[in-house]
Fold each of these.
Amino acid sequence: MNILVTGGAGYIGSHTCLELLNVGHEIVVIDNLSNGNFEALKRISELTKKDFRFYQEDLLDKTTLEKIFSENNIDAVIHFAGLKSVDESIKIPLHYYHNNITGTLVLCQTMKKYDVKKMIFSSSANVYGVPKNVPITEDSPLAPINPYGRTKLIIEEILRDLYVSDNSWGIVLLRYFNPIGAHESGRIGEDPSDIPNNLMPYITQVAVGKRDKLKVFGKDYNTHDGTGVRDYIHVVDLAKGHLKALEMVTSTTGIDAFNLGTGIGYSVLDLIKNYENTTSQKIPYTLTHRRPGDIDKCYADVNKANKKLGWKATKNLEDMCKDSWRWQKNNPNGYEG
Ligand code: WQD
């Protein structure tokens, strides 16, 4: 199949492009490179020995998007493109709503025009907000607590309304928990454009000597050791979840949401300890105040994805730490280097 991957030069997008090519799909990538790296696309070609078309364009440009659909026979779309920083979304919500939602509307209108009605949408566990219970199931209350999470929920609702208006669509909503790790080659990985917001890229930058020490945000959460608990999932497991979702949208119509996680929660201190043991790199840290907006615990119930999608994460925390370190050690300055 020929798959249009929006945001394919990003962290999860690039790992998914690699898996798509490895199983014989063709891909077309559109990315405005606001968060992605062209170098990642070059390395995907290197690793797979396959070429593909790349358009450095923005989904908001309807004319260009129509040109892409007219030039390529697209069978399905995997939609990653979107701004994804919780902190930033709180500071510039209008930019987030415009970029993420209007971009998706332009994409869906163009897909409709060219009769492409198979979509996998990159959603997030952020749609759950502060979970009442863990593990979180897909029918848990949807109550995002920041503009970023609200863009994801609004887009999910738009896609549900789209399906109700035309039952010939096949749509899967994938709610990611905490993606970390990197491809085993060490050639592609997570490369934050600024000081990392997220835990694992910060840890790997401490390990490689780019940062002095890690600040652990909060030591009084209602968890086994007082630090925040999250469901870390290897980015390659996450990428393979998209292949299963692609099988679903190409064989059936409908719309459904799935949690992509491991179902296991680890605390910040658990991750630090595991990282040190796995990589033999010391991670100095200080225990500081909570980060506004953070929650105590967030981990997935993955039974629905296991049963209906036929997908299950296979990599453990050691794999995630080992693969993250290999990427950072080989690329101390990310793709810039
Ligand atoms: C994990 C834990 C922090 C950094 C975010 C987004 C979510 C998703 C994944 C897009 C928390 C602690 C972190 C640090 C720390 N992205 N921490 N020191 O906040 O669970 O989720 O990324 O979908 O939408 O919200 O991930 O990695 O930022 O934090 O102590 O320097 O690590 O408090 O407990 P989070 P995170």
Amino acid sequence: MPVSIVIGSQWGDEGKGKVVDLLSQDIDIVARYQGGANAGHTIAWDDTTFVLHLVPSGIFHEGVTCVIGNGVVLDPAAVIEEIQTIKDLGYDVEDRLRISHNAHLIMPYHKAVEAAREEARDADAIGTTGRGIGPAYMDKFARTGIRVVDLLDRDVLREKLTRAIEEKNAILQRIYGADELDVDKIIEEYVEFDQLIDPYVTNTSEYLCNALDEGKHVLAEGAQGSLLDVDFGSYPYVTSSHPTAGGCCTGLGVPPTEVNRSIGIAKAYCTRVGNGPFPTELNDAVGEQLRDVGNEYGATTGRPRRCGWLDLVALRYTSMINGFTELAITKLDVLSGLDELKVCTAYQYNGKTTQRFRSEVQTLEKVEPVYETLPGWDDDITGVRHLAELPTEAQDYLAFVSDYLGVDVSMVSIGPKRQQIITDLEARMPA
Ligand code: IMP
């Protein structure tokens, strides 16, 4: 059986957690392939709302095994706490979670260096989540990182940590004038993690490849969004990993020939947290309405999200990179009550109209969106379960998006709860 990938098609927070939770009903394994505790994947059912930061969003389905792949940067304290909270909710985790032995660890010095660097950048700060993600990936590629497997050998861990902390203390003190970290305290804290993490540690690439050979179906769960990809996003206002489809193979160690489904998740409008260009941003009452109605506050940091109209130029770009075979449109209900809806179908740049997305900051911050205006609808659609029950204007909005992109819309989410999703969309084929 193949690998399906769930990919954020915008700047993150598209509602991937909910879609992964839904698809997990028919899946054997859900595997996270990049990012770390900067992600916040929200799942809501009955009276419970749960935000997952590291554990894959399939964990609430008993038959599903969850994998944290080698491409993830793992904060051991955060994952241990998350596991405990999931267990407290009554779910078995011990036999159902596997953590790659090759995943790199987030250390306290990664967060300290990140905080010092962001402060020093001042007005040019990236606006990171403060979870140490960038510095951890830096160490990975500088080949000075510490991996999950190192936790299991106390002597190796002590030696690697001592060397790393000495170096980081020099950076913190000499470059940023920040406080030094206490080597012994960190070592004491991290050697404690080995027993807690040990039951989960696995060669996950081997595990996944064997599972695929046995006919199991793997759902690869991306974090963040394609426009935050370190290569394809608006660098440097990006995260430090590859949320795009390519990240799945390197972040899990599965062959590209196994991937046959690339599911793009797109909000019915756009949001962005942190700094960086956002062509369709609305700094007006409509933007505020989207934030209020959509509860657009970061699931990890609580920061208010910047809100704007749907940007189809950007979406076509991420569809191209990821080869979306289908789209899930989320939060369509948030648009209810707006008289008219604008959709960006081109950019004006240097006096010319273009449908080409340019990720370079210098260009992207100068483009002016060109909008098509579509009629809005008033009805509350949060109880709708079938496409045909949606107001015509809402159906037309979906058809417009699908036609522009040339990609089918296969799911439409109309509220935060598990059951608030429309899946009978086969009829909406692009023209
Ligand atoms: P970092 O990933 O913490 O280094 O942050 C880099 C950029 O990515 C910042 O603009 C963050 O706000 C953004 N970012 C990171 N993770 C998420 C996410 O899960 N959702 C939305 N934005 C994110």
